[in-house]
Specification:
It is a single chain. Helix 2 runs parallel beside helix 11. This protein is an alpha/beta fold. It contains 12 helices and 18 strands. It folds into 2 domains: about 375 residues, FAD/NAD(P)-binding domain (3-Layer(bba) Sandwich); about 55 residues, no CATH class. The protein starts with 5 loop residues before the first helix and ends with a helix.
């Protein structure tokens, strides 16, 4: 079993990807080469700005090539909670924005001719308890009433057998507008598009400090200095104390994935005849799907930590996969890996500026859908093409000190485990 992402094993970083040396000066330095940073780079180059994308590893190394490849509708926070917190008008605007983010994703893939197996196959949320299914029914009715949204529906336990080859769940909620893709092919396609338009992609360059000065910032790296008029932090779950105020607004959460060997076509059809994206209704949820080449990808977590033993987590994922799909108990697992989600304290994405540094982060597992459009919007703010963003209008809670993960995450993990037992 290989301990590297299946996605980059299947589609490695292109050898002919145009990368650059560290320049002396640019209009905008973007720290992070995932979906956010690359969409921002594309947008800024279209506006005529000079851009350097700085990556301490290789292009797309983080969550953008490590996720499950699921572009799902909505936001992490429950929309009814969003309505109560921000009001009906803002709630509806945020919902429309979230739907538009998948449209923007699809348009970008088509315009840039990125071959990443994008397909609007939809997703199914699976009820792990009878009460969860009852909640789904109320939620679909609420969607229709409050959002005028009619592309989601519930399936009983009996009807669910047409969607998934397991009796494990008590029903499901289907949303037709979600999509699947190959995340590594997508991020490398974005990188090609950005480089083609003149963005400078700089690998293996760790940013060690940012110093404000007349006319912008001095960006300090282990490979030299870079002068930039503006800096964009696009690191999401990999955000460090480089900008302390930004770090206090987000915490990393680990996610762990296994992938099987390719399955026979008949077994693929039995497990997932419509090739939906699946995730269950637990707090410590599992998510799974068939990959474009017919493997079962199965992910999740039993703890919020980013430092769990990888092989132990793989064993737990394999055991749970066998409970959901007994047909896969003896099927070899070929790959296991981990990555980091970026989660804010209100479970909402945020866009803004702290200590003079622009940032966009907090996707909480919805980055495939929303990181691109948020990257575009923060770039438009930088270029003076936009006055504000919905997510800039949301108050951003910050923890009073760092590092807080060792205090906060263990408590939250215990709470989630308790909720999964009793709720």
């Amino acid at each position: 079993m290989q301990t590297v992402p299946y996605w980059t094993e299947d589609s490695p970083r292109p050898l002919d990807l145009q990368v650059s040396e560290l320049p002396d000066a640019v209009d905008v330095a973007i720290i992070g080469s995932g979906y956010t940073g690359l969409h921002a780079a594309l947008t800024l180059r279209k506006a005529g700005a000079t851009v350097a994308v700085l990556e301490q590893e290789t292009i797309g190394w983080g969550a953008s090539s490590r996720n499950g490849g699921m572009a799902t509708t909505g936001l992490k926070e429950d929309m009814a909670v969003v309505f109560k917190r921000y009001g009906t008008e803002m709630g509806r605007a945020l919902w429309r924005w979230a739907l538009a983010s998948i449209d923007y994703l699809e348009i970008t893939i088509k315009e840039e001719a990125i071959d990443c197996h994008f397909a609007r196959t939809g997703h199914v949320t699976l009820a792990t308890k009878p009460g969860h299914f009852d909640h789904f029914a109320r939620e679909v009715a609420w969607f229709a009433r409050e959002l005028d949204y009619h592309d989601a529906w519930v399936l009983s336990k009996a009807d669910l057998s047409n969607e998934i080859g397991t009796p494990e769940y008590y029903g499901g909620l289907v949303d037709r507008n979600s999509a699947g893709l190959h995340p590594a092919k997508y991020v490398f396609g974005l990188a090609r598009a950005a480089a083609r338009r003149g963005a400078l992609l700089v690998e293996h360059v760790a940013v060690t400090g940012l110093r404000r000065q007349a006319g912008g910032f001095q960006v300090m790296t282990r490979r030299g200095l870079l002068q930039a008029k503006e800096v964009l932090l696009a690191t999401n779950g990999y955000t460090t104390n480089l900008v302390p105020a930004a770090r206090r607004g987000i915490f990393p959460v680990g996610s762990y994935i296994i992938v099987t060997e390719p399955l026979p076509p008949a077994l693929q059809e039995e497990l997932s005849p419509r090739r939906r994206m699946f995730f269950d209704s637990k707090h410590f949820l599992n998510y799974f799907r068939l990959t474009p080449d017919g493997r079962m990808l199965f992910g999740g977590r039993h703890n919020l930590s980013t430092n769990l033993d990888l092989l132990e987590s793989a064993h737990m994922m394999r055991r749970r996969m066998g409970e959901v799909f007994p047909q896969l108990v003896n099927v070899p697992v070929t790959h296991t890996w981990t990555g980091k989600l970026g989660v804010t304290f209100d479970l909402m994405p945020h866009i803004g500026r702290v200590e003079g540094i622009h940032y966009a982060y907090g996707y909480a597992g919805h980055g495939v859908s929303i990181a691109g459009l948020l990257g575009k919007e923060v770039a438009e703010l930088l270029a003076g093409q936009r006055q504000t963003s919905l997510f800039a209008q949301i108050k951003h809670a910050r923890y009073p000190f760092t590092p807080y993960d060792r205090f906060y995450l263990p408590l939250l993990s215990r709470w989630f485990r308790l909720l999964d037992k009793i709720a």
